[in-house]
Amino acid sequence: GRVLYITRHGESMYNLENRIGGNPSLSNRGQQYAQKLGQYVNKNLKFDKVWTSELSRTLETSAHIKDIEKKRIMKPELNEIMSGIFDDLSYEEFKDQSPIEYKERELNKLTYRYPEGESYLDVCSRIEPVMSEMDTGENLLVICHQAVIRCILARLQRTPAIEIPYIKVPLHSLLKITYLNGQNTVEVIPLNV
Ligand code: F6P
């Protein structure tokens, strides 16, 4: 059956600070993941295309893959959930500055739309135009972000919508998604750094 690979970007400076959104670079550990991912891919896999978002952290994560300049396609549809007026804040600062909004998001994480930003449902519709190309694509690696990967996995595995914002997507792991006998199964390949 069809095999698709997906990974989050390596750990970013904002992951370290527990910050939302923004356009941070990778941390040292994140850069080590980029190197390890490159080594693993160059040794074991053969991708014709590597999709990234437009954000630095996914581009940096792709950097060590052989011939990446020829293979890389940046897709704005894969950018992380837009956190609008709370972009760049830590979750702590978000909570302190706007406790009501914060609570609202906790209670309705699927439908909560950041002011001037997006909800999980918005992200799920935004990725829809690239979903069919992704789903049928061969030799494709997708490097993107936590919220976007949750929406992609939910779409591929028919996860109930209400569970989408809580799907666990580990850092520094490659997800191998195989479509066989009418269903997608996900294998987690940890590339520990
Ligand atoms: O890993 C950080 C991050 O990608 C943020 O940029 C983003 O806002 C967040 O994860 C999405 O996760 P959650 O919806 O659980 O806050």
Automatic annotation (TrEMBL):
Gene Ontology terms: cellular component: cytosol
Residue sites binding substrate per the record: 8-15, 57
A single MF term (Gene Ontology): 6-phosphofructo-2-kinase activity
GO biological process: fructose 2,6-bisphosphate metabolic process
Family: In the C-terminal section; belongs to the phosphoglycerate mutase family.
Name the record gives this protein: Uncharacterized protein
Source species: Tigriopus californicus
Residues of the full protein shown: 47 to 239 of 296
